[in-house]
Amino acid sequence: MSETGDDTGTDGPSATTGSDETDSPGGTETADDTRSDETAGEDHYAFWADEVADAVEARDPEEPVVIKGGISPSGVPHLGNVNEIMRGYFVAEVLRERGWEVRQVFTTDDRDPLRKLPRKLADLDGKIVDLGDVNAGALGKNLGHAYTEIPDPFGCCDSYGEHFSTLIAESAELLDAPIDVVSTTDLYESGRMDDVVEHVLENRDRAREVLSEYQDKVDEDYVPFNPFCSECGKVTETVTAVRVEDREVDYRCTDIEAGNRTIEGCDHEGTATFREGKLPWRFEWPAQWQVLGVDFEPFGKDHAEGSWPSGVDIAENVLDIEPPEPMVYEWFTLDGEPFSSSEGNIVLVHDVLETLEPEVLRFFFAKDPNKARDFSVERLDQLVDEFDRVERLYYGEESGTEREERRAERVYPFLSSLADVPSAALAASGVFDVGDTDEAATLAADFDHNDPEDRRRRREFVDGEFESRVRLPYTFAAVLGMFDDEGARAATARKEGHVADDDPEWAVEDAFGRVALASEWADRTDNEYNYTVSRATLPEVDVDEATAAALDDLADFVADGADGEAIQGEIYESAKRHDVEIGEFFGIGYRLFFGEEEGPQLGYFLGDLDRAFVVERLRRQR
């Protein structure tokens, strides 16, 4: 949950946080999805969402159980913001599994006033742009106005607030997390907030007393309502009279402080109804709990230390309601630095899914929310490797510790979405009673997370037909992406044993989809896989007699089955034996395989290619 004005912002911690050692595949035991390592034995949950679901059930909620998240449209809705959606999603799925109907809502606090200009924005395709690339005047002229009253700087939506809400809804849809996006502006303008605003203003002395425990600026003139000026449209904090029975207030449009700057009021005096203003954030958050009937809400640790305690106090002692079950999550960092819309250190779900399958990204969010972790674009291969291992553990294709196997068994089914799998696989499974891939695609699109039968069939598919899926290792897929010959990609994958003759056609086709993802990753990070291997034609490379002999020696060494590390060492030895300058010898190798003067660590790279091709290329035969 984000907020504006009162407390900390939405961009995360000021200190960087390193990635967990437990995230490294092949490293220490991956026990990071348990809520506490102090509890042992069979009673210890393998998935944190189970423990949270217990706490929600203990409230004896009415159906539908309401899970909430929220954000203010103050910047780009980046991957860190999606935390609240996905943490809530996993708890929702566990509750649905237990037989509960669940509604997951996500409020966009678009009634908030714009207090500063963001440096970065994003279009509806998720492309991040600088403020100067759009109609910045649409924002610059509207400081102090509600986001839903500000023109969309992209010109595609009715307002900037709607543009932002559309982006967050798309992020959830891309991860198949069914949320109802609720506009705070709509809550006020529809009258759904009238009763709670009336209650707060009717009890404003008590409200003032409670809030004064948390904010120094609360004085005897403080009124917990902020009207919007009918003359200039800006929010004001100066209420001069309250008429609860008429559901309206009088105001004067005065200056408001926004960080280091002052947004000037126009000094207009007027009257506003309860639908023409808003509660201050500290009251608005618990008011949303009441109006929406919220049972559970996750939020970042900044709110645990700031607005959550005041929210609980206001809920219990002003609104006379029970606050929802909370869950505090740690922040993410991005490549070791805090997510920051203002500094441009952001990445959107749209962007990430050009390098990862959705199920891999869901896996990242399924990790223990109590641990700070880094989303490293540079090391996406490690995240994919960890997901692949969990998948193999689930299907019994690999053994792990008891804890790892329990974790895989519990978590993996929640990572799958029918929207992600090939329609041909759904049609082939026989689970869904569809005649062709078009019907299967429609079925996946119409999946109802609250329908027990839909969920049962999804699980049957995951445990049945989908066991035949094929996964190319991520870095191997990146290597295949370097080939300029698709036929060679397929031949190499089969030769290396990653694809078998009896694999279903849908599984093979789906597996090669990872090649494009890994290639995009290589291109964005400009890593050692960001080259093109010229397989179709032999580059024209002239070599003298000594160099030819050294290349033939190296070819013989590779033919004997050496790995990448050994090949790297042999490159030096072959050059030395034939008195070839080592830099020149590497240059010849790069020209032979890439047609360029430089490239990745050659020996390690050659170890990833199919041996027959490497041998023939070193011998200048093809």
Structural commentary:
The protein is elongated. A hairpin with a 2-residue loop joins strand 9 (256-258) and strand 10. It has 622 residues and is an alpha/beta fold. The protein has a three-stranded parallel beta sheet with strand order 1-2-5. The chain is built from 26 helices and 17 strands. Helix 1 packs across helix 2 (83-97), helix 22 (545-559) runs antiparallel to helix 23 and helix 23 crosses helix 25 (602-608). Among the domains are: 46-191 and 330-399, 3-Layer(aba) Sandwich (Rossmann fold); 226-273, no CATH class; 545-619, Orthogonal Bundle (Arc Repressor Mutant, subunit A), CATH 1.10.10.
How are the secondary structure elements laid out?
Layout: H1 48-57, E1 65-71, H2 83-97, E2 102-108, E3 120-122, E4 128-130, H3 137-140, H4 160-174, E5 180-183, H5 184-189, H6 194-202, H7 204-211, E6 226-227, E7 239-243, E8 248-252, E9 256-258, E10 261-263, E11 269-273, E12 277-278, H8 281-292, E13 296-300, H9 301-305, H10 307-319, E14 325-329, E15 332-334, E16 337-338, H11 349-352, H12 358-365, E17 373-375, H13 380-394, H14 402-411, H15 423-429, H16 437-445, H17 452-463, H18 474-480, H19 486-495, H20 505-511, H21 513-525, H22 545-559, H23 564-577, H24 582-594, H25 602-608, H26 611-618
Parallel strand pairs: 1-2, 2-5, 13-14, 15-17
Antiparallel strand pairs: 3-4, 6-12, 7-8, 8-11, 9-10, 15-16
